[in-house]
Design goal:
71% of the residues lie in helices and 0% in strands. It is an all-alpha fold and 196 residues long. The N and C termini lie far apart (61 Å).
C-alpha cells in the first residue's frame, strides 16, 4: 500500500465530487431560470385572455386561447414549409429538416457571438457573473423601453393613459402575435419574440 497515493486518490475523488455538485447546482439554477421565465410567459398570456380581469379564464376565454394557439401552430407549420419545403411535398423530409436545424443553429451562434462581443469584457469566451448581471439589466431596460413604446403606439389621444378602447386595440394586436400572424416581422412583443 502507498499512503501517499491513497491520499492523492482520495483528494482527487473529493475534488471531482465537488465539481460534480457544482455542475449540478449550475444546471438546477439554469432549469429554475427557464422554469421561472416560462411561468412568467404563461401568466402574461393568461392575463391577455382574461377579458374581465377576474384572475381566472372562463370557458369562453379558454376556448379562445385554445383556438388561437392551434392557429399559431398552423401558421408556424405553414411558415416552415414556405421556408424549407424545397420539393413542395407539403412535408419536410430529412434533408429539409436538417436545413431548418442548421439555420436555427446558425441563428443561435450569431446571437451568442453578438452577446459575447457586447458583454464579454475580459474576452475569455464565457460570461462571468458580473457580465451576466449587466446582460440581465440591459434586457430589463430594453423590455421597459419596448413596453412604453408599445403603449405609446396605442395611446391614440396621447394622454399618457390607455382607455378601454385603446386597451382593446392593444389586446387585439397582441392576440394577433399569439396566433402567429406576424411571424415574418421582426420586433413585436418581447415576451413572444422567441416563442416559435
Amino acid at each position: 500500500e502507498n499512503p501517499g497515493l491513497d491520499s492523492a486518490a482520495e483528494s482527487f475523488r473529493s475534488t471531482k465530487d465537488k465539481m460534480h455538485r457544482s455542475d449540478e447546482k449550475k444546471a438546477q439554477r439554469g432549469f429554475k431560470n427557464k422554469h421561472k421565465y416560462r411561468k412568467h410567459l404563461l401568466r402574461r398570456v393568461l392575463r391577455l385572455y382574461d377579458g374581465d380581469q377576474s384572475g381566472n379564464l372562463s370557458q369562453e376565454e379558454k376556448n379562445e386561447l385554445e383556438n388561437d394557439l392551434n392557429t399559431r401552430c398552423d401558421n408556424i407549420k405553414a411558415k416552415r414549409l414556405a421556408d424549407y419545403d424545397s420539393d413542395g411535398s407539403g412535408d419536410l423530409n430529412e434533408e429539409e429538416w436538417n436545413a431548418l436545424l442548421a439555420a436555427r443553429q446558425e441563428n443561435f451562434s450569431q446571437k451568442r457571438s453578438e452577446i459575447l462581443e457586447q458583454y464579454d469584457s475580459d474576452e475569455d469566451g464565457v460570461l462571468s457573473r458580473q457580465e451576466k448581471k449587466a446582460l440581465r439589466q440591459d434586457k430589463r431596460e430594453t423590455f421597459r423601453t419596448k413596453r412604453q413604446e408599445l403603449r405609446a403606439t396605442f395611446d391614440a389621444n396621447q394622454d399618457g393613459e390607455l382607455d378601454e378602447d385603446e386597451r382593446t386595440a392593444l389586446r387585439t394586436y397582441l392576440k394577433e402575435w399569439i396566433r402567429g400572424e406576424h411571424l415574418e416581422e421582426s420586433g413585436g412583443p418581447l415576451f413572444l419574440k422567441h416563442w416559435h
